[in-house]
Design goal:
Length: about 280
């Protein structure tokens, strides 16, 4: 702990990667993780704010910023950081206008970049649709969170808010370790020589020019990569889904790994290429 009351820890290697990408392509929201909670019934705003602040005290990453200290990149954990929850009142709009404005604000908030040197890296906004209907927007930067963490936050928020309304104390068990502890352990482990071995493996694996994936497209590949992508939804029936799950379990891999393998097979069919690293 420093004289200013903050705690300093090294970054994990994943956080170092996020920091580099943020500096390499600044002012982008590509690594924002967003969620929303629609709440119906009478809302106790202070109870909601208190619940969010309890979660921030429980998870140090929600009090963390990232900056250089004496020339070294560090996690800066500041227990004095307070989570603010601004309120935007949309109750004066017509129903259709309200829903359109909720969607617009949700996109606007989720696309607003974070400054990694300023905590908290969790942004919360409360939208009032009616006296007994609200939407809570949450956005976190990937340097402190992931999709699983957003689910944990949502679950704990529900439990703490329900307890606040009943006047019950925080019953969540104390966390045995924090992410900073893991980062400290990871740095020590990889510095033992493991990192050099892994770097050598990938340097050998990726040596030589990386191939360009020669997909048939209806446009010209841009010379500079952008983040203006899109997505396509494909719905699989229950029988196919279960077969994929059974195959994954039989081969001892995750569902993601099986689907990624299938995607690579598809790319091979389109291109005829066997090296699909790009």
């Amino acid at each position: 702990m420093t004289s200013t009351g903050v705690y300093l820890f090294p970054l994990s290697y994943a956080q170092q990667r996020m920091w580099f990408l943020d500096k390499f392509v600044p002012d982008r929201a590509a690594y924002n993780i967003s969620g929303a909670v629609r709440m119906k019934g009478r809302l106790e705003r202070q109870a909601l704010v208190d619940s969010l602040r309890t979660i921030a005290r429980r998870h140090e990453t929600l009090q963390t910023s990232f900056r250089e200290v004496d020339g070294e990149l560090m996690q800066v954990i500041d227990p004095a950081v307070e989570q603010e929850v601004p309120l935007i009142d949309l109750s004066g709009l017509l129903a259709a206008e309200r829903e359109a404005e909720v969607q617009r604000l949700a996109q606007e908030v989720s696309r607003q970049p974070f400054e990694l040197h300023t905590a908290p890296l969790l942004r919360t906004t409360l939208l009032k649709l009616a006296e007994e209907e609200h939407v809570l927007l949450l956005t976190m930067h990937h340097i402190i969170s992931d999709g699983w963490s957003m689910g944990v936050l949502m679950q704990e928020l529900g439990l703490l808010y329900a307890g606040q309304l009943k006047g019950e104390p925080d019953r969540l068990p104390e966390l045995p370790i924090q992410y900073a502890d893991y980062a400290d352990w990871q740095n020590e482990y990889l510095d033992s020589g493991v990192l050099d071995e892994q770097l050598l493996y990938w340097k050998q694996k990726l040596q030589g020019p990386l191939p360009v994936l020669d997909l048939p497209t209806d446009g010209i590949r841009p010379s500079i990569q952008s983040l203006k992508g899109t997505f396509a939804e494909i719905e699989l029936d229950r029988e196919v889904t279960e077969q994929i799950r059974e195959l994954s379990q039989r081969e001892g891999v995750s569902l993601f790994m099986t689907l990624l393998a299938a995607f690579n097979v598809l790319l091979h069919r389109y291109t005829g290429q066997e090296d699909l690293r790009s």
